[in-house]
């Protein structure tokens, strides 16, 4: 579907010109989630991806910079400390430290995961910052956007206002949230053998309902439009966050919204971002809200474990993910 005219819809876009292709694709840029127009909602649902301005009346940027500086100090600690038994990733709890390290080859991607209210020990001193960022990312960005999506998709499917409210509350009231700090060391600090890798993080889709990402260095790319057959760059701006739809939201809303395939290129400079992943509660019955059919044979906790393993333990080849994107 071709982008609609800006002057008709009064929507802000960022342009990107793919190599060898004169077609211009526009990335939606949302200035206020509280004043989303119908065409903006449709555009976001269509792409599964958008820039969203951080609230101006909050000190969240100060909190983000404080967390960034602390995370950089953590990643500069000795490997033995970062990968200690108490800090190492526990996939069952989605908590701990993980890295892309093969045998004795140098690290070229590191990451930590934990709940904002239950950090790993080296981040316990940052608890107030973590809770504040989670509060803003969820309450001022993710939750209002989800409300708009539920309202639009379920109303189109014929649900009444009361039922839509019940289904929305069921999906969002007992959310499971986790924060992550993807880190890519400066290339000159890595062995040249690391440079054979094409990606800092393989192409993947987020498993949850919605992700809010703060990034201030280039490298992130999104497979936004199958007709262009090309990856497009995300242009960092610390006044905005990147918001993308996850697979779980696509499943429960009957494929009426897209989850965005994305990757991170091998870094050309030191790079750290902050990602907040929002998931359904572990005991949520993962089902299609429109057809009432089960989407996964098991609890949401089992679904999350399965998807987490595919992304961070056994990544799916890029060509398979692109083929899946075309089917969905």
What are the SSEs and their pairings?
Layout: H1 6-9, E1 12-16, E2 25-30, H2 38-47, E3 49-53, H3 60-75, H4 79-82, E4 96-99, E5 110-114, H5 127-156, H6 161-172, E6 176-180, E7 183-184, E8 199-204, E9 210-215, E10 220-223, E11 232-233, E12 240-245, H7 247-252, E13 261-265, E14 271-279, H8 300-312, H9 318-327
Parallel strand pairs: 2-3
Antiparallel strand pairs: 1-2, 3-12, 4-5, 5-6, 6-14, 7-14, 8-13, 9-12, 9-14, 10-11, 10-13
Q: What would you say this structure looks like, in words?
A:
By secondary structure, this protein is an alpha+beta fold. The protein has one domain (6-327): Sandwich (Jelly Rolls). Helices cover 32% and strands 21% of the residues. It is built from nine helices and 14 strands. Strands 1, 2, 3, 4, 5, 6, 7, 9, 12 and 14 form a ten-stranded mixed sheet that branches. A four-stranded antiparallel sheet has the order 8-13-10-11, with helices on one face. Helix 2 (38-47) crosses helix 5 and helix 3 (60-75) crosses helix 5. It is globular, with a radius of gyration of 19 Å. The protein starts with 5 loop residues before the first helix and ends with a helix. The model is unreliable at 1-24 and 315-328 (pLDDT under 50).
